[in-house]
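Lab notes, practical 5.
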Amino acid sequence: MGPASPSTSPQLTTPDQTRSTNKMAMAMAGRSSSTAVAVAVAVYAVALLVSTAWAAATPAKPAAGGAPSMPAGPLDIVLLGAKGDGKTDATQTIMKAWKNACAATGTQKIIIPAGNFLVGALELSGPCTSSIIIRLDGNLLGTGDLNAYKKNWIEVMHVDNFSINGHGTIDGQGPLVWEKNQCNKNYNCKILPNSLVLDYVNNATIRGITLKNAKFFHLNLFNCKTVLVENVQITAPGDSPNTDGIHMGDSEDVTIKSTTIGVGDDCISIGPGTKHVKIHGSHCGPGHGISVGSLGRYKDEKDVEDIQVTNCTIKGATNGLRIKSYEDSKSALRATRFVYDDVRMDNVSFPIVIDQKYCPNNICAKASGASKVVVADIVFKNIVGTSATPEAVTLNCANNVPCQGVQLVNVNLKYTGTNNKTMAVCHNALGKSVNVVKELACL
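Output from the prediction step:
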């Protein structure tokens, strides 16, 4: 967490007081100098008394988004010395622009113009006394020197009213370091830097930009409230390791609209403690689909509630709509009130999956099978298209806490291969099937 930004000085006079003082001074213009001086002194004394009283009644730190003030320095990183040549380190110029914007009031806009700007770790910390917009029309290139990062690449922390928009790109240059990712061999591996991280950020908008080739996750939201991701492109090769498109945890009121994601891991990953998520009109593929979980890996995880995925397309992904929790879960939590409606699958390996016996890298080899994660009230409605494997529906629920309230409504998925028939594999799942093709109606 970075240091809090300095507060701006309190306003000494109101605009009306200033106008009154100016009028009185102008009225003295035609009088003798001695009289004018005497009156001016009296006017100043009165103004000082009034301004002192006003300052005492005015908070020392104005609320973010209040009356605008002039920042201490430029907000265009080129004016601060940045060079868009793809070679010169622009880290400090962006940090300086952030400091100038954060300490001002009103709405302040940081400008990253056209060009290629090489950037190391950025800790953009609040709280700020302004609302900040980053206008990204250039390309930010993440250095391949892993020693330049403490943890993440671009991290925005403890900020209210934050936006990043434009036509530029946040390019993690992941191909430079992906070979150093050992997470496919060791589940407790060292995590490479995430590209864009929002921690404890309220009222944020990310619009229009492209995130590309992250070293690890592209966009990570933690403990955020009221976030809109709209018209964003997220792209990485389908075989790139752990390059999730959007991950969120302990966050609330997240909306993802008209966004296209093709990566090497989950297109969208919804972690513990997340509530009120709406994903609409978006495209996923390649990748591992739109996932909830994994849940139950750590102690004290919180419930996941009210997830809506509507009018989306998933193409060429290994999974479609997936809920996964550990077989030997360490937390007691609920995953409940999910609605998946109007989702088209195009050659997706496993279109619908609930897996309460998730166990990557065989770390659960001695699992007791006694899950503590409850999965309930899950609706799959108007899910159509094609499956790349015969197993179009998989409901693999725990023996001790069966899935409850699962609904398959208007589900029509067909295996595109030969020699096998489309099927559903369902264990310990309770619910109902309505207008579902015969081979998938397992509830």
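Observations recorded by the TA: The mean pLDDT is 87. Residues 355 and 425 are 11 Å apart (CA to CA).
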